[in-house]
Amino acid sequence: xxxxxxxxxxxxxxxxxxxxxxxxxxxxxxxxxxxxxxxxxxxxxxxxxxxxxxxxxxxxxxxxxxxxxxxxxxxxxxxxxxxxxxxxxxxxxxxxxxxxxxxxxxxxxxxxxxxxxxxxxxxxxxxxxxxxxxxxxxxxxxxxxxxxxxxxxxxxxxxxxxxxxxxxxxxxxxxxxxxxxxxxxxxxxxxxxxxxxxxxxxxxxxxxxxxxxxxxxxxxxxxxxxxxxxxxxxxxxxxxxxxxxxxxxxxxxxxxxxxxxxxxxxxxxxxxxxxxxxxxxxxxxxxxxxx
Length: 291
Prior knowledge:
It is built from eight helices and 13 strands. It is an alpha/beta fold and 291 residues long.
């Protein structure tokens, strides 16, 4: 849920369970019995996995004004005998998010701008980078900058330092805004479901250095960007969002790069917002995203 309707009385309920008849009616009955008003309901039944997904936005009884913990506790008591994975979130919450970047600024700057104008309902306690060239940019937004230089010899120590920053700040999300370092498997497991990355969508066709020039040499007609959760398998995590654009023979390599930058910003910003608004469900190696 977005916009001015967010308040302490609005909540988001996420449910994942085995496909079965009556689940929608049962949840609606729970809401009605407690005078909770349903504002929006999204649902999807995956016939391949036999899993049912639901995202429900509701307003609690305004006469009672219960807190998120109380609402969650009541639902937990109700589903005690049901095989359901579920969570309740305060729609007005502002979770904390750490941004990681290297030398390129476009994705980082875009997220910082969206945060400043209130489009992303999140607090950013710090931005970390393995280089210093973005320090001035970050500090101009009034956000602390942390330099984490990485070498092969101290990679584990730097990643341990990063995890320490995540825990110290209570951050629930870490976004790799063109952070050009490959994270080791242990940290991918440690922060599973809390790491989002962005990259061009030429993979695996044009891997390695200068993928846009490779694409140019092959005369590609479609370019794109992919935002996904980070897993130990490089650039192969569950996809959250993708953006694409048609190109033609008039595009030079620098034109492809410019278009790619725009697509990366769009895909990453959407993926971050979907995650923050609890719209994303893991479905094996895939995701269910209620836009």
